[in-house]
Design brief:
Blueprint: H1 3-12, H2 20-33, E1 39-42, H3 51-58, E2 67-71, H4 80-85, H5 101-105, E3 110-114, H6 121-133, E4 135-137, E5 144-146, E6 150-155, H7 159-164, H8 170-176, E7 179-182, H9 192-208, E8 214-215, H10 217-225, H11 231-245, E9 250-251, H12 253-257, H13 280-324, H14 380-394, H15 399-406, H16 410-420
Parallel strand pairs: 1-6, 1-7, 2-3, 3-6, 8-9
Antiparallel strand pairs: 4-5
Length: 428
């Protein structure tokens, strides 16, 4: 594109600047305008990306058709599909009639999707289908609709990072990025900063009928060195502030420093939330997972304690029965022996806590040989065997009645019979 034609374009769209990166972006936009190829405009917030899609539409065969600029980040996730693709009557609460949506209304025209990186994943899938086939289905509908729309998208999101994090579809990115246009940040535009400042001061002076402000040489140097994280939008805001609030019409470096922020600014493309970023949604999921696991652990512990308590009660019942019958109690250890009774569990050393596993049948008492010095005492297993044998004899070998007499369950009695080797000797 020759210089004269480029200057006409800048005058028509009120574009100020002569840097090579800006001129290249305008040149690419004009070349691609005559086609129907998708365009993705990438640049930081506030660089003026919205000028490019308007320029493309006005210089395309579709210039007499409708043009819609849609900010994808400002539409709630729950309604964005309806806004873009339309809906059928009664498809959701409040849908009192059918709607064509932007893609239906803008047929034959151009749609500018600003902040396209903020689209939900489900909406991205719908958009990909429109780009590939020109087809879509309204929310709540079944009929396939057709549309012929030119799509120009823009984003200030680092798309490669968004794809890596699973926030944006890679196939959609390459479909949108047929023709990429990079808009330069203000800090890289050199003398354009002062040209834009002059434009904004003239606009303020004309609009509010006030004297136009100017900059001293040191103030100009400060403007050129500043990083301008808010780009053209920030420069315009600061210029308007100085035009209204400054008492002096000539701004020096000291006066300018009062309007320029001194904190650290970020000049990188914004990114979607990373896995390490603070997210209340992820925290909620983690808490749910912890509570679920804790509930399972508490349930397992309750079952184990219930089994242990029942076995302790059964052993206490056997002890009481043995005492009543004049047999040595299971809870009474022989002289010069280690405690092996149930009460020992209540005084078990903290460094030697018994291990309870949910995969085995837990025994409440420890059965082992504990002979006295003269070898005359009976071990605990023999005492328990005597108690069970006597109960079976009195009830004619009927396990159910024997268990009732002993005050224990049928299952516990069966376990005792198996332990003492009596399960094959008695009869039901």
């Amino acid at each position: 594109m020759d210089t004269s034609e480029l200057q006409k374009i800048k005058q028509r769209y009120n574009i100020v600047g002569n840097c090579d990166a800006l001129n290249h972006a305008l040149d690419v936009a004009l070349q691609v305008a005559a086609t129907d190829l998708s365009v993705l405009i990438v640049g930081e917030s506030g660089v003026g990306k919205e000028i490019i899609p308007r320029l493309i539409h006005d210089n395309s065969p579709r210039k007499r058709e409708k043009y819609f600029a849609i900010n994808c980040g400002s539409i709630p996730e729950g309604t964005i599909d309806s806004e873009l693709f339309g809906h059928e009557k009664g498809s959701f609460t409040g849908a009192i009639g059918e709607s064509e949506g932007y893609f239906g209304t803008a047929n034959k025209g151009t749609i500018f999707l600003d902040e396209v990186g903020e689209l939900p994943i489900a909406t991205q899938a719908r958009l990909l289908r429109v780009l590939e086939t020109g087809e879509y289905i309204r929310v709540g509908g079944q009929k396939i609709m057709k549309t012929d729309v030119r799509i120009v998208a823009a984003t200030n999101v680092n798309m490669h990072k968004a794809i890596t994090e699973g926030r944006f579809r890679e196939d959609l990115y390459y479909r949108l990025n047929t023709i990429p246009i990079q808009m330069p940040p203000l800090r890289e535009r050199g003398e354009d900063i002062l040209l834009l400042f002059r434009l904004f001061t003239m606009q303020m002076a004309e609009k509010y009928r006030i004297p136009r402000i100017t900059l001293t040489e040191d103030a100009k140097m400060m403007m050129m060195k500043y990083k301008w994280p808010g780009n053209v939008r920030q420069l315009k805001n600061i210029t308007e502030q100085m035009s209204v609030l400054s008492q002096k019409r000539e701004i020096d470096a000291e006066a300018l420093s009062k309007f320029i922020p001194h904190d650290q600014e970020s000049t990188e493309l914004t990114t979607t939330a990373t896995p390490d970023a603070h997210s209340y949604e992820s925290e909620r999921e983690i808490l749910y997972k912890i509570l679920y696991e804790l509930r399972g652990n508490v349930g397992d512990l309750r079952r184990e304690m219930s089994t242990l308590r029942k076995q302790i009660d059964d052993n206490n019942t056997l002890n009481s029965f043995a005492n009543a019958r004049g047999i040595q109690s299971l809870a009474a250890p022989e002289p010069n022996t280690q405690p092996t009774d149930i009460s020992a569990l209540h005084h078990y050393p903290t460094t030697q806590q018994p291990h309870f596993s949910p995969y085995q049948d837990v025994e409440a008492e420890e059965i082992r040989e504990n002979d006295s010095a003269n070898g005359e005492s009976l071990n605990l297993s023999d005492i328990g065997r005597q108690v069970v044998e006597k109960a079976l004899e009195r009830n004619g070998g009927n396990r159910k009645k024997a268990a009732q007499e002993l005050g224990i369950s049928d299952r516990t009695l069966y376990r005792r019979l198996k332990q003492y080797g009596l399960d094959k000797q008695d009869k039901e």
